[in-house]
C-alpha cells in the first residue's frame, strides 16, 4: 500500500497547495516542499531497508508489489511494483521536486497555489510512470504529465519573453509528446489485441504481455511505436525539436524537473518496457538506435557551441548526454546499462545545478543572453565558482558522477561496438569546447555592465552545496547505485544475449 501513497501524496499535496493559496503566499510553498520531502524520505527508507541482493534464477525481481483489479472486463489492473531502478528514480523525483520548490521561492509570485498544483501533479505523474506495471496505467500516468507541464511553461514561462513565445513553446512540447504518446497507445492496443486473439482474454499486464507471441511481421512496428514515444521524450535527434524552446521558456523549476526527471522517464520506459517486450526486435534495431545516439551526441554538442542563450546551451547539452544513455541501453552490456543509470542520475544533478545557476544569473542580470554578461568573476560572490564546478561535472571530470557513468558506458560498449565508442568520444571533446564557451562568456571577458550585484541567498547556497555534494559522492562512491540496479541490468543483458543468438553478449559485457 505504500506504493499507492507514493503516488497519491503528490496529487493530494497539489490540491492542498491550490486550496491554501487563500491562507498566504508562503503556505503553498511550504506544503509543496513538505510533500516532496515526504516522498523523498519514504523512498530513502525503502532503499535503506530493502534487500537488493541478486535473487536466485526465476525469483521475483520486485522489492514491493501491489495489485488490485480496476476494470476487470478489459483486464485493467492497478498494478504497481518497485525494484532498484524505479526506487532510485522515485527518490530522485522527490529530491529534485523539493529543489524545484526551493528555486521557485522568489521567482514565482503570482497564482502560487495553482503553480504548485501543476508542479506536484507533474511529479505525481512521474512517480506513477516509475511504479506502474499495467500498461494502461503506465500510459495514463505518461499522459498525465503533459497538461500540467503545458501550464507550467505557458503561464509561468520566462518573464523576459513575450506571452506568445511561451505559449508557442508549450504548444510545441504538448504536440510532440501527445502525438508520440498516441503511437505508443496504438502499440499497446495492438499488443493487447494480439494477446486476445491468442488466448481469448484481454490483459494490459506487463508480465502477461511479455509472454505474448507476436507475429514477426507486426512485432517491429509495435516496437517502433514504443521507441518513438520514448525517443521524443528522451529526446533523440531528429525528434528533439520541442526541447530547446521548452527549456528556454520554462521557469527554473520547470527546467529542473524537465531535464532532471521527465527526460529520465523515456530511458526508464526503454529499459522497463521497450526492450523486455520486444527483445528480438530491439536487438535487430540496436544499430539504428546506436546511430541515432551518436547523431544526438555530436549534434547536441555542436549546436550547444553556437548558442547565445545560456538556457538553450544547457538544453542542447542534455541532448548530447542522453545520446550516451541511448547507446548504452542498446549495447546489451550490463556494465554499459549500469553506466547509463549512473549517468541519468549524474545528469539530473549537474543539469539541475546549471539551470538553477542560470535562474540565479537572470534574477541579477535580467537577461539570458551570454553576450550581455561577462566579467562576473570577482564581481559576483561564489556563483562563478559553483558554475565552474557544475560545468566540470557536466564535462565528466574524474571524481564527478558524470565521469563514472560515461566511463562505464564507453568501457561496456567498446567490446561490441568499438567504432561507436570512438565516434562518441568526439562528443567529450566538443563538451570541453561548449563548457569553455559558457564559462568565458559569462564570467570572464570585458565587464558588460557596471554596478554591484547581490550575492547568493542562504537558500541558493544550500541548493548548490547539496547538489555538488551528491555529484562528488556518486563520483567517488557509486557502489550503492550499482548494487541497487544490478538485477535489472543483468536481466536486460541476459535478454539481449538470448535474443542476439549468434552475437552472444556475456553479462560482463564481453563478447564470446
From TrEMBL:
<dbReference type="Pfam" id="PF00361">
    <property type="entry name" value="Proton_antipo_M"/>
</dbReference>
<dbReference type="InterPro" id="IPR001750">
    <property type="entry name" value="ND/Mrp_TM"/>
</dbReference>
<feature type="domain" description="NADH:quinone oxidoreductase/Mrp antiporter transmembrane">
    <location>
        <begin position="132"/>
        <end position="426"/>
    </location>
</feature>
<dbReference type="GO" id="GO:0015990">
    <property type="term" value="P:electron transport coupled proton transport"/>
</dbReference>
<feature type="transmembrane region" description="Helical">
    <location>
        <begin position="460"/>
        <end position="478"/>
    </location>
</feature>
<keyword id="KW-1133">Transmembrane helix</keyword>
<dbReference type="InterPro" id="IPR003918">
    <property type="entry name" value="NADH_UbQ_OxRdtase"/>
</dbReference>
<dbReference type="GO" id="GO:0048039">
    <property type="term" value="F:ubiquinone binding"/>
</dbReference>
<comment type="similarity">
    <text>Belongs to the complex I subunit 4 family.</text>
</comment>
<feature type="transmembrane region" description="Helical">
    <location>
        <begin position="377"/>
        <end position="397"/>
    </location>
</feature>
<dbReference type="GO" id="GO:0042773">
    <property type="term" value="P:ATP synthesis coupled electron transport"/>
</dbReference>
<dbReference type="GO" id="GO:0016020">
    <property type="term" value="C:membrane"/>
</dbReference>
<keyword id="KW-0472">Membrane</keyword>
<feature type="transmembrane region" description="Helical">
    <location>
        <begin position="114"/>
        <end position="133"/>
    </location>
</feature>
<feature type="transmembrane region" description="Helical">
    <location>
        <begin position="76"/>
        <end position="102"/>
    </location>
</feature>
<keyword id="KW-0812">Transmembrane</keyword>
<feature type="transmembrane region" description="Helical">
    <location>
        <begin position="313"/>
        <end position="330"/>
    </location>
</feature>
<feature type="transmembrane region" description="Helical">
    <location>
        <begin position="336"/>
        <end position="357"/>
    </location>
</feature>
<feature type="transmembrane region" description="Helical">
    <location>
        <begin position="6"/>
        <end position="23"/>
    </location>
</feature>
<dbReference type="GO" id="GO:0003954">
    <property type="term" value="F:NADH dehydrogenase activity"/>
</dbReference>
<keyword id="KW-0560">Oxidoreductase</keyword>
<feature type="transmembrane region" description="Helical">
    <location>
        <begin position="217"/>
        <end position="237"/>
    </location>
</feature>
<feature type="transmembrane region" description="Helical">
    <location>
        <begin position="258"/>
        <end position="278"/>
    </location>
</feature>
<feature type="transmembrane region" description="Helical">
    <location>
        <begin position="284"/>
        <end position="306"/>
    </location>
</feature>
<feature type="transmembrane region" description="Helical">
    <location>
        <begin position="139"/>
        <end position="161"/>
    </location>
</feature>
<protein>
    <recommendedName>
        <fullName>NADH-quinone oxidoreductase subunit M</fullName>
    </recommendedName>
</protein>
<dbReference type="InterPro" id="IPR010227">
    <property type="entry name" value="NADH_Q_OxRdtase_chainM/4"/>
</dbReference>
<dbReference type="GO" id="GO:0008137">
    <property type="term" value="F:NADH dehydrogenase (ubiquinone) activity"/>
</dbReference>
<feature type="transmembrane region" description="Helical">
    <location>
        <begin position="417"/>
        <end position="439"/>
    </location>
</feature>
<dbReference type="GO" id="GO:0012505">
    <property type="term" value="C:endomembrane system"/>
</dbReference>
<feature type="transmembrane region" description="Helical">
    <location>
        <begin position="30"/>
        <end position="48"/>
    </location>
</feature>
<feature type="transmembrane region" description="Helical">
    <location>
        <begin position="173"/>
        <end position="197"/>
    </location>
</feature>
Amino acid at each position: 500500500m505504500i506504493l499507492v501513497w507514493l503516488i497519491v501524496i503528490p496529487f493530494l499535496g497539489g490540491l492542498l497547495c491550490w486550496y491554501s493559496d487563500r491562507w498566504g503566499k508562503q503556505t503553498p510553498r511550504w506544503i509543496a516542499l513538505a510533500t516532496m520531502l515526504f516522498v523523498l524520505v519514504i523512498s530513502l527508507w525503502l532503499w535503506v531497508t530493502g534487500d537488493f541482493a541478486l535473487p536466485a534464477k526465476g525469483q521475483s525481481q520486485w522489492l514491493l508489489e501491489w495489485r488490485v483489479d480496476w476494470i476487470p472486463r478489459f483486464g485493467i489492473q492497478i498494478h504497481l511494483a518497485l525494484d532498484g531502478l524505479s526506487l532510485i528514480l522515485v527518490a530522485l523525483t522527490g529530491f529534485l521536486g523539493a529543489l524545484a520548490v526551493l528555486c521557485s521561492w522568489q521567482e514565482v509570485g503570482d497564482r502560487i497555489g495553482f503553480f504548485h498544483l501543476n508542479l506536484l501533479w507533474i511529479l505525481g505523474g512521474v512517480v506513477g510512470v516509475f511504479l506502474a506495471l499495467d500498461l494502461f496505467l503506465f500510459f495514463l500516468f505518461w499522459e498525465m504529465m503533459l497538461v500540467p507541464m503545458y501550464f507550467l511553461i505557458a503561464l509561468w514561462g520566462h518573464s523576459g519573453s513575450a506571452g506568445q513565445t511561451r505559449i508557442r513553446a508549450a504548444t510545441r512540447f504538448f504536440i510532440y509528446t501527445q502525438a508520440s504518446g498516441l503511437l505508443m497507445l496504438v502499440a499497446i492496443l495492438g499488443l493487447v489485441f494480439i494477446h486476445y486473439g491468442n488466448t481469448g482474454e484481454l490483459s494490459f499486464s506487463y508480465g502477461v504481455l511479455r509472454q505474448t507471441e507476436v507475429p514477426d511481421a507486426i512485432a517491429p512496428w509495435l516496437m517502433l511505436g514504443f521507441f518513438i514515444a520514448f525517443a521524443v521524450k528522451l529526446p533523440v535527434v531528429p525528434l528533439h525539436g520541442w526541447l530547446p524552446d521548452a527549456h528556454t521558456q520554462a521557469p527554473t523549476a520547470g527546467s529542473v524537473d524537465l531535464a532532471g526527471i521527465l527526460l529520465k522517464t523515456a530511458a526508464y520506459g526503454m529499459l522497463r518496457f521497450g526492450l523486455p517486450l520486444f527483445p528480438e526486435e530491439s536487438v535487430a534495431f540496436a544499430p539504428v538506435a546506436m546511430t541515432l545516439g551518436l547523431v544526438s551526441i555530436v549534434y547536441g554538442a555542436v549546436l550547444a557551441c553556437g548558442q547565445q542563450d545560456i538556457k538553450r546551451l544547457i538544453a542542447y547539452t542534455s541532448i548530447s548526454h542522453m545520446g550516451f544513455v541511448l547507446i548504452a541501453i542498446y549495447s546489451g552490456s550490463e556494465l554499459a546499462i549500469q553506466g547509463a543509470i549512473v549517468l541519468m542520475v549524474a545528469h539530473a544533478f549537474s543539469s539541475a545545478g546549471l539551470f538553477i545557476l542560470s535562474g540565479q544569473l537572470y534574477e541579477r542580470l535580467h537577461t539570458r543572453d551570454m553576450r550581455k554578461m561577462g566579467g562576473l568573476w570577482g564581481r559576483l560572490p561564489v556563483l562563478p565558482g559553483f558554475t565552474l564546478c557544475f560545468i566540470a561535472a557536466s564535462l565528466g571530470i574524474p571524481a564527478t558522477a558524470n565521469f563514472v557513468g560515461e566511463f562505464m558506458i564507453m568501457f561496456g560498449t567498446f567490446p561490441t561496438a568499438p567504432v561507436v565508442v570512438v565516434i562518441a568520444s568526439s562528443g567529450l571533446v566538443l563538451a570541453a569546447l561548449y563548457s569553455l564557451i559558457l564559462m568565458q562568456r559569462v564570467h570572464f571577458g570585458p565587464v558588460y555592465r557596471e554596478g554591484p550585484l547581490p550575492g547568493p541567498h542562504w537558500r541558493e547556497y544550500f541548493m548548490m552545496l547539496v547538489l555538488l555534494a551528491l555529484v562528488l559522492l556518486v563520483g567517488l562512491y557509486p557502489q550503492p547505485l550499482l548494487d541497487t540496479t544490478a538485477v535489472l541490468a543483468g536481466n536486460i543483458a541476459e535478454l539481449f544475449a538470448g535474443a542476439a543468438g549468434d552475437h552472444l553478449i556475456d553479462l560482463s559485457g564481453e563478447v564470446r
